[in-house]
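Deliverable D5.2: sample structural annotation.
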Amino acid sequence: MAQDFRTLQEQLQELSEAGRPSISFEFFPPKDDAAEAVLWQAIRRLEPLNPTFVSVTYGAGGSSRDRTTRVTARIAQDTTLTPMAHLTCVGASRAELRQVIAEYAGAGVRNVLAIRGDPPEGPQAVWTPHPQGLDHAVDLVRMVRELGRFSVGVAAFPDVHPASADLDADARVLAMKADAGAQFAITQMFFTEEAYFRLVERAATHGCTIPIIPGIMPVTNLRQISRIAELSGVALPAPIVARLQAVADDPAAIRAVGVEVAIDLSTRLLRGGAPGLHFITMNRSTATLDVFAGLGLAART
């Protein structure tokens, strides 16, 4: 069910004035029809919570683009949810990017997360832009803003991005994206509130005051989270690793610890003034629902 367009910036401001946090969910692109069915089960279970928005990422290296755009369009047309489309520079010419943006607009999708994206070989690989494409997220932000009335968000990094010189460089780039027209940011997952609040402070010193929404991923698989952290540069604190390793042979216990960690971190972030929480669901709803319940958040009406 397509909705009247209000920018996410406007919605975030309204929630802030009401003293309520933004709650949003992130899904990954399904690889096949069976995975897409699982995704839709998760979407329908989380829909009654009435989140501020939901997003569907591109696949690694920009893969799964067609399925991602189709799922995002269907969310706009067939649910009560507000979708946010991910858009990356990876493997796409300027003309192809304009076409994708036009397709989103035609489907009623007016919220876009504009990110450079990782090389197909992984986050640690050397970035090489498409010969007729864009080189930086800043360029993509400008393109989206020039092509219509879109609400544009960008990525932010509490832990240093693999391609960045240091944390301050990440903050400077975030400020550049805000200057180009980005209206809010969503962080990569992280595991300490200090990392998040340091990012907010660093960004402010560069004149960047857009809302920065923390990305939260409840840990349900120790091997998976370790691999993601290794590839992305996310710092896994030793105390959390020790808690997970202590129950490494018990999947249910790992999940329980992961939910506890997410609840604790989310609580401290909201108490410290974070504008909301963006849950990376891994296309499963139960852990996210458990965190939501543990935080005592009520579904929005």
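Annotation notes: The chain has one domain: 8-294. The mean pLDDT is 88.
The annotation will be released with the project's public dataset once the embargo ends.
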